[in-house]
Amino acid sequence: MPTSLQDPLRNGDPLAWEAFVRAYQGRVYGLAYHYTTQAEDARDLTQDVFVRIYQNLAMLPGEEGRLPWILRITRNACIDHLRRRKARPPLWDGPAEELFHLRSPELNPEEAHLEQVRAARVHQALQELTYLNREILLLKEIQGLKVEAIAEILEVPVGTVKSRSNRARLELAQKLTAIGMGA
Amino acid sequence: MHDAPLNPYLPDPPVALDLTRAILARTSGSPCLRVQDLACHFVDGELEATQERLVRGHLDHCEDCAHLMKALALATTLLPRMAEADPGPWFTARVMRATVHATRRSHEWRATWMQLLHRPRIALEAAYLGTAVSLLGLSLPMPESLPAPRALVRTLSPEPLLVPLKAPAQRMLGQLVAAEKRTVASVQRGLKLDGAAAEGATSAGWWQRGSVRVRGWLRGLKGMSEEKAPTPANP
Ligand SMILES: [Zn+2]
């Protein structure tokens, strides 16, 4: 559903734009951090993504298609960045415990901290997966996109995403058991 | 019944597990691989009751598969919670600076420029500036407007100086002048440009021709005004 012309966001209203940035910056930064594994690079990329979106606000899809559209821009920006960074291999950016908002209101602070440590280990294990498996997990299991949207973003058949999805999860679980999680 | 083994040759339970594996390896294939095939469906609760019971039965006896299943369940819970990360408290302000504020600044520049363009006397000012630049350009010396070496040689022609001298001196100087002319001609041939350089030379030539023509016009106009000027003075 296309957004109406009366949409303050599409008309460039700074307040609507600020609300939009607040709503999506965690998602964009989360995906960029998974791709780059470096907080500062991920921050720069996130800013670039929002500048690109701001310059193309007229093309912003309606609510339903918005997240896949934003994540596609983010993913492409990350791939470009990684291509440029090829000469400089990615460095491990240290503990990622503080980076993830783990939305578990039922957890007490101690449990929440434990969850964050686990999330950081999962993030580390993700880096060891084969490239396509990792991307499928980032977009499907983490960002929760539909198989069709992922196939479009990754430019692979829908069947490939479906068949690879469970294999990727299993590969991740094997990496986690190798580092002692699940014992 | 379980108090004492009926047959003392029956193997111990761990050996029985190995035996089970050995039998399965030679018959249906590895049950662990089958569990791996079903693991995601098991964690997602998509298995039918019988299959689920069979998987649970295997997990009770296979530590490796139990660990794998626990890790898979943990990942399944954690992954969706990792969708967002915190870019820091000032990040939104940073994005706002890079988008809205930057655009506003560029709009301000554009507005200033438009204001300048819409001044009432802008056409007059532009014409004045254009004329000034053109005149400045026309009066600048161009490389080709310098006297050509041949002309220089002609200027320095020695004939008038040779009159008081005798024939041998005249002949010698004539030879020197001829040699000088030949050198100049060969240098000029060598300086003939081609390709991109020739374009520059052509444009310089065009400029010079234009400049000469404009100066000619100006001289003509001046001449006309000088011719006309005395007419009213003479009755
Ligand atoms: Zn097993």
Instruction: Give a count of the beta strands of chain A, DSSP E runs of length 2 or more.
Output: 0
Q: What is the CATH superfamily classification of the largest domain in chain A? A: RNA polymerase sigma factor, region 2, helix turn helix motif
Report the β-strand fraction of chain B as a percent range.
under 5%
Low-confidence stretches of chain B: 193-201, 229-235
What characteristic shape of chain B results from the CA principal axes?
A: elongated
Average the pLDDT over all residues of chain B and give the rounded result: 75
For the biggest sheet of chain B, the summary is:
none
Helix proportion of chain B: over 70%
Order of helices and strands of chain B: HHHHHHHHHHH
Individual helix count of chain A: 7
Largest sheet of chain A: none
What's the helix-strand series of chain A?
A: HHHHHHH
Here the CATH topology of the largest domain in chain A equals Rna Polymerase Sigma Factor, Chain: A
Strand and helix map with partners:
The complex is a heterodimer of chains A (about 180) and B (about 240).
Chain A: H1 14-36, H2 39-55, H3 63-84, H4 109-126, H5 131-142, H6 147-154, H7 158-178
Chain B: H1 13-26, H2 31-43, H3 49-61, H4 63-78, H5 91-117, H6 122-139, H7 149-155, H8 159-162, H9 167-190, H10 195-228, H11 230-233
Zinc ion binds next to helix 2 and helix 4 of chain B.
Describe it.
- The complex is a heterodimer of chains A (183) and B (235).
- Chain A is mainly α and 183 residues long.
- Chain A has two domains: 1-98, RNA polymerase sigma factor, region 2, helix turn helix motif (Rna Polymerase Sigma Factor, Chain: A, Orthogonal Bundle), CATH 1.10.1740.10; 100-183, Orthogonal Bundle (Arc Repressor Mutant, subunit A), CATH 1.10.10.10.
- Helix content of chain A is 66%, strand content 0%.
- In chain A, 35% of the residues are buried.
- The model of chain A has no long low-confidence stretch (mean pLDDT 88).
- Chain B has 235 residues and is an all-alpha fold.
- In chain B, helix 2 runs parallel beside helix 4 (63-78) and helix 3 (49-61) packs across helix 4.
- In chain B, 8% of the residues are buried.
- Mean pLDDT of chain B is 75; it is low at 193-201 and 229-235.
- The complex binds zinc ion.
- Zinc ion is lined by residues 32, 35, 58, 62, 64-65 of chain B.
- The site of zinc ion (ZN) has 6 residues of chain B, from helix 2 and helix 4.
